[in-house]
Amino acid sequence: MVADFKQSFGFHSLSLQGIALPRFDLCGGVPDGLEVDGLEVESQERRMSISQEHRQSILAEFATKPEDTGSPEVQIAVLTAEIQAVTEHLHTHPKDYSGRRGLLSKVSRRRQLLDYLKRGSVAKYQAIIARLNIRK
Question: Which candidate in 54, 67, 83, 135 could, as Cys together with 50 as Cys, close a disulfide (CB 3.0–4.6 Å)?
Fold first, then answer.
């Protein structure tokens, strides 16, 4: 029973003189609503990445044709959502320098895609800028 609980929630245990201390797997996270030493662990809803459902809604909204995942408009929209998620994360974790580096990488990639779109069609560029409320 305990092994099933540990396996299903990504728990590992450390033993210190016969006392089992919970240690959480960094990839699995902490299960929602878990109480550790009397402290309620907050939900895992706030993540740096966007959820698959949110990504699918972006794809549906910005796709130029069915099953479109690679057009610049879709890529820019997905990157914008990811940038917003990472920015929100950095407001609560200001010393996350790796996250900041990832944010700069995403912003640079979006800028490259916007420049590519502007070279091809200024009308599409202006439409995506207005639709996503991006400064330029």
Answer: 54
